[in-house]
Amino acid sequence: MLCHACYAEPDAIADCTACRGTGRATRMPLCEEAWSEVVPGLWQGGHDVRSQAGTAGVVGAEFDLVVSLAVREGSGPADGVEHVVLRMADAGVDAALAARVDALAAQVVAALADGRRVLVRCSGGLNRSGLVVAAALVRQGRTPDEAIGLVRAARGPWALTNPGFVAHLRTLGPGGLALG
């Protein structure tokens, strides 16, 4: 997990007091909110939040499409809400996972183009959901670094601290296609 302060960027890592120059974090806090709007209509979130209230991460009918990368019994969404489930680990990105993330990103972008409200969620609402949300933003025409910045601005500095996810996102070119 990358440091939330310097993100292991070579120009910042040597002077980083948060990680003491290692570029790595040793812990990751929970978010205050179950979900946050990244761009209009596109929300990112998770099951676990600081309040730990039993209903904090439960989705009802607030969204038209919910993409769950981790599933908890009783966490919704409500009947009638489109729900796509792809269980994935907060680990690296191989070719098979890259293809699945790309397909989810395309589905998210299509739903947004139709004016639908979309939530992409995982356990903490930081890395796995951030990967799919950022991939969707790149598909919409943003650069990978712009997409990463939007995710971090919405969910906090601990979002997208998985170095494998960040590396994968930085391979994406216009329209979300992997560069040679």
What are the salient characteristics of this protein?
180 residues, alpha/beta, Protein-Tyrosine Phosphatase, Chain A, 2 domains, five-stranded mixed sheet, 5 helices, 5 strands
Shape: globular
Give unreliable regions as ranges. Answer: none
**SSE arrangement, N to C:** HEEEEHEHHH
Secondary structure tally: strands: 5
DSSP strand content: 5-15%
Mean pLDDT: 88
CATH topology of the largest domain: Protein-Tyrosine Phosphatase, Chain A
- Specify the CATH architecture of the largest domain: Alpha-Beta Complex
What is the CATH C-level name of the largest domain? Alpha Beta
Helix percent band: 25-40%
Q: Radius of gyration, Cα only, in angstroms?
A: 16 Å
Describe the structure.
There is one protein chain. The protein is 30% helix and 13% strand. The protein has 180 residues and is an alpha/beta fold. It has a 5-stranded mixed β-sheet, covered by helices on one side. A hairpin with a 2-residue loop joins strand 1 and strand 2 (42-46). Helix 2 (95-113) crosses helix 3 (128-139) and helix 3 packs across helix 4.
